[in-house]
């Protein structure tokens, strides 16, 4: 996990930078030093191997994916960081949340007291991206260039998990079972955990979904540096900067959110990783056949392929009433999605909660926790 990853948020600052929660603001100020020193050390290492490296050129001696991989190395044997990420446009002192958002966000604290719960404001997210990716300016240039909040919200989840790991979930999701219950012991270890969002067995599926089998990106769990995240961050960065250069980033050109930053490109990145992993695996290479959507059709129990944990469709969409979905009371129902957070519109007033989830004043529980999770 990057040294720049926050360890928790407290009350918002009352200074001119009050859009950044106070502890996160202090964290950002302090970790800039670590990022700068780290960049200098990395430059020194490269110079010893006679490589020319510029912090502003990601493709000079290696691809953007290679650069991200070196800055955020993936440790397959590491633990899942005990960190829950959520985002919303402003702090609770500046916007009146929809009551569903408040109770939904509060559910993550109540069922996962051993996790640190971060609800990051849009402005704080932008600043954090600049800190975490200071060594890869192309990434934050792409983030800054995205013309719609929903595009930035999509991109941020991949960036935060790539750099820091943990669990990301949309602000309008309610957790139904603690995260420790999501992970079957017999499927340990895993590097990336995703749910199936859609499995539409109908001829007109393309009218409703981006892919025949579509992976959920409103709730994701990952160890830092996972290659799927590196791939999607690189893909979005490259596409965004190309469109920026061609003056095609106006909102009118950005109608296909599902393909640009959403579940379409997310599903593609997962399948690309699975196909390459299977090809490189000596145990499967001799009998290699490309991983296709059929592998995940009608999946009703958790499964693992190339260290990617795939949860059945009920786990992230219980109670919807089609595609074989079961009720929210099912043993595999883990997260309920309200499908309203991405609108990011002004919402009615939220009642006072026990926990100020936007400021992140979660009550940290020091009780012993599952060894699979990293503190």
From TrEMBL:
Molecular-function GO term, any one: alpha-1,6-mannosyltransferase activity
Organism superkingdom: Eukaryota
GO-annotated cellular components: mannan polymerase complex
Keyword Repressor recorded: no
Pfam families: Gly_transf_sug
Family matches, as SUPFAM superfamilies: Nucleotide-diphospho-sugar transferases (SSF53448)
Keyword Iron: no
Transmembrane regions: 27-46
GO biological process, one term: protein N-linked glycosylation
Sorted UniProt keywords: Membrane, Transmembrane, Transmembrane helix
Recorded family membership: Belongs to the glycosyltransferase 32 family.
Stated name of the protein: Initiation-specific alpha-1,6-mannosyltransferase
Organism: Hortaea werneckii
Taxonomic lineage from the root: Eukaryota, Fungi, Dikarya, Ascomycota, Pezizomycotina
